[in-house]
Amino acid sequence: MGLPNASQKVQDFLSQFDLNLEVKEFPASTRTAQDAAEAVGCAIGQIVKSLIFRSADKPLLFLVSGDNRLDVNKVSRDLGISLKKANAQFVRDKSGYAIGCVPPVAHDEKMEVFIDRDLLSFDEIWAAAGTPHAVFRLKSADLQRITAGRVINVK
Predict the structure, then answer these.
(1) Which domain holds residue 82?
(2) Core-most of 32, 34, 37, 94, by most CB within 10 Å?
């Protein structure tokens, strides 16, 4: 039995990097950072939260450590842009995935990516892979490579 379509889309994207990145499915939910950490047996900080915000009608993806909160005012000021929380429909329309399942890659629409500097303090991290039960593990050093993201302070 293969992966669900959404997870297969992520796996296909990951395969282009020759990093042996593999989407894994779990019987337990991986929808929240806490759920994912419990399912894979890691610290909550090792979970990559994919948070989509909007600047006008443009989606921006923030990859945030599971135990951090993105300080919207600070990040808006630092980046010189106005950030607004994206609703569930905007997230699905721009990324192709539901909130809680958004991977850091393989989106329907290209978006600018920002990476929480704290994620780089971990050797290995885990990210969503398109469904509420799928994630993939990667070296934190490879996150910037697969996303072309810019490392920032989010708190």
Answers:
(1) 5-152
(2) 94
